[in-house]
Structure formats: structure tokens, C-alpha cells
Amino acid sequence: MIEIERKFLVTSDAFKKEATSKTFIIQGFLNTHPERTVRVRAVGKKGILTVKGKSSEDGTTRFEWETEIPLEEAKKLLQLCEKGIIEKYRHEVSFAKNLFEIDEFLGDNAGLVLAEIELNEVNQTFKKPSWLGEEVTGDIKYYNSQISKNPFKNW
Amino acid sequence: MIEIERKFLVTSDAFKKEATSKTFIIQGFLNTHPERTVRVRAVGKKGILTVKGKSSEDGTTRFEWETEIPLEEAKKLLQLCEKGIIEKYRHEVSFAKNLFEIDEFLGDNAGLVLAEIELNEVNQTFKKPSWLGEEVTGDIKYYNSQISKNPFKNW
């Protein structure tokens, strides 16, 4: 499928009061090539393998394919991944009928908080919550595949 | 799991008379890094995604993880793969209670025929059929991930 996403910095912790879920995620990459990233995730009790294609020029659309795998298998694959395993909390917040996924990074990326909204159409408008800051859609520095290689503490 | 395999050149077509199956395989790689290859296959009506780790020094053992996926999804992932999609026939031959998998490559690799035998132990002995030639276990040139980048016609 093709995914349409926009990504923003988060300017305060205010989103935490509105969050409906908080999930711990460990993730690594078997491949961080911009044309075909292969991601392994341990998300709560699930394992997830995701392949993403190249982003469109404006960074909003991208081929994405995902399959669930047993958690134990995901953990073995995480051991094979490139250096730079990412740990983060994923918070979900509903705001004006839209779902925001907010990643609060840990470890070498502590202090970095990013929000993503998935849209049905590229030009779809949506209401912005007060804690939503600057848009960073398409800025490669904020891709998880790049964060894993160049963590926030080095920025 | 850890896989123990040995690989050989095939010196004649004689194996074809003994083959119990012949399957057309299209395969590509999302990643050809020797420490973590990610392979996509369309095998008959199935899709298969495989992750392999680094080989042991003698080339016989290697971490391998595999999952079946829908054929249509495999075909989409093949479009994302690195250049050098491989097409081949996989023949299966039982000989003296061992299974040999014989790859007859097509296209840019026509003329290359390789046999693999999977073993339970590194030092396990087995009977060699007459058509089995030189051993090439651990020779990186014969890895499918390398063949896809440097096809047989260029050797």
C-alpha cells in the first residue's frame, strides 16, 4: 500500500494527558537504504517486520508493507540489525477525529519527541493540537532509519 | 535457526532424470549486505521472505529466518528490490536418502547450475551423485546475493 503521512515536532508534554495508549517499542533496521528500508520491531507482545520504499519528493507518500511475526523471532532478528537499536514509547492521541502517533524516544535519543498523522489524501486538512510544533515531513534527519545511525544526542 | 549447507557445481544434466520436482523461482534482494541479507521470492504460488545472517568462516553455517507471505505481496516487494532479479528452476533430487536442491539459473546466469545439500551436522558425510562437481561452499561469488550483482555471463 501507499502511505500518506506528515510528521511534526512536539513542543510540550501536554499530549500525555490526552493519550489513550502508551506502548514500548524496540526497533532496528536490517537495511537503511532510502529506497528500501527493512525494519524489525518488538511492540509490546508482537513482532512486526516492515518494508518501506522510497519517499515521494515532498516526503508525504511512501510504499509500506508490513507483516506480524512472533515476538521471539523479532528478537532474534533484532540481534542481526545494524547498530543503533531505537527504544521509544509510542503514545496514541485522538484529536478532532484524527489519530496522532507520538514517539517519545529514549536512550541516545532522549529529548526527541515526534508526532505523525496518517492521512487519506495528500491535501487533506486537519486540526492541529496546541502541542504540535514545526512540520518536519520529508526531512531525512527525522527518519527512524537515520536517527538509528545519527542519534539525537549528537545533533 | 542455524542452517548447515554445502554447495557444489553440477557437471551434467543427468540430475534431471532423477528430479522429483521442478519449480520456477523469481527472487530479488532488499539487502545484499553479507551480515544481513533480506531475500524476496516468488516460488510457484507462494511468496517467501527470508533473512540470513553472516556465514561462519568455513561458509557452512548461517542464521536463517523465513516466513511465507502472499504471492501478490511478494511481487510488489520484488519491484522494490535491488537490480539483478534472479530467475531459476529449482530441481529436487533425492540421492542416498539425502535431498539435493539444484538451481538451474536462467537469463544473465544461464549455464550456471548449483547443487545444495542441507546437513544436520557440520561433519556429516553423504554419498555424492555422479553429476556433483567441485565444492564451492563459502565461495561468496556463488551466493545468490552476489550473483544478482555480478551475473554469470560476466564471469
Automatic annotation (TrEMBL), chains A, B:
It comes from the Bacteria. Transmembrane segments: none annotated. Residues 1-149 form the CYTH domain. SMART domains: CYTH (SM01118). It holds the Pfam family CYTH. InterPro entries: CYTH_domain, NeuTTM/CthTTM-like. This is CYTH domain-containing protein. The lineage of its organism: Bacteria, Pseudomonadati, Bacteroidota, Flavobacteriia, Flavobacteriales.
